[in-house]
Amino acid sequence: MSELSFKTYCIENYAEYKNLSSSTVFEKFVNTQLLKHLETDYEDLHGMGKEFLMDYFDQWFEERNTK
């Protein structure tokens, strides 16, 4: 999976998981530097399961005090 495909996968799946629009999730990923993190830690994250990633993103946002 390419980095772009992985980012798209993460945004789309998190949007579905949280019942939010993809554009809202994209903005949240950008504003909290998560999108950049997905790029820099791609090798470590892209092999993780969907459930792990959703929990990881929840923790990421919690640590940055975002909803």
Characterization of this structure:
This protein is mainly α and 67 residues long. Helices cover 76% and strands 0% of the residues. It is built from five helices and no strands. It has helices at residues 3-18, 22-31, 34-40, 42-45, 50-63. It is globular and about 25 Å long. The model has no long low-confidence stretch (mean pLDDT 94).
Main attributes of the structure:
5 helices; globular
Measured on Cα atoms, how large is the radius of gyration?
Answer: 11 Å
The major sheet is characterized as: none
The helix tally amounts to 5
Q: Give average pLDDT, whole number.
A: 94
Distance between the termini: 29 Å
List how many beta strands DSSP finds: 0
Assembly state of the chains shown: single chain
Helix content: over 70%
Strand percent estimate? under 5%
Structure summary:
The protein is mainly α and 67 residues long.
Topology record:
Layout: H1 3-18, H2 22-31, H3 34-40, H4 42-45, H5 50-63
